[in-house]
Write a structure and sequence with these properties.
This protein is of the alpha+beta class and about 140 residues long. Helices cover about 25% and strands about 15% of the residues.
């Protein structure tokens, strides 16, 4: 299965998402988006395909969000996209693209919605100790 993750290795959610993809037996294409951000068109497409608004895809925590006044509701989606491309740290992560769909994997187990369920062979526990998959590889609800 062809899977791409827009990844930040410093982010626990991103690391957990990458580990879940690999636990499914898939080696994804890993794009460290802070060094290699998507094009503006690609970012807009990922956001739309994930069923989000641009505002929902902006990361506020640990970014210049407040300093840039991005909480201003008068800003258009086009303006927000421009700022996200200029400062990729504002792109929330991780975005994952598979043939089954695109998701902003927050929380990380959201990625399970777009991975084949039969690929998991055992349990999966996130970095914080939360169990996501049981010993049979089934999602814990």
């Amino acid at each position: 299965m062809d899977v791409t993750i827009y990844h930040n290795p410093a982010c626990g959610t991103s690391r957990n998402t990458l580990a879940l993809i690999r636990a499914a037996g898939i080696e994804p294409s890993v794009i460290e988006y802070l060094q290699n951000p998507p094009s503006r068109d690609k970012l807009a497409m990922m956001i739309a395909d994930a069923g989000l608004t641009v505002r929902e895809a902006i990361r506020a925590k640990g970014t210049p969000y407040a300093e840039l006044g991005l909480d201003n509701l008068d800003l258009t989606e086009e303006q927000l996209l421009d700022v996200m491309i200029a400062s990729p740290i504002l792109i929330n992560r991780p975005f994952v693209i598979t043939p089954l769909g695109t998701r902003l994997a927050r929380p990380s187990e959201t990625v399970l919605d777009i991975l084949p369920a039969d690929g998991f062979k055992g349990s999966f526990i996130k970095e914080d100790g939360e169990q996501v998959l049981d010993p049979e590889g089934k999602r814990i609800v």
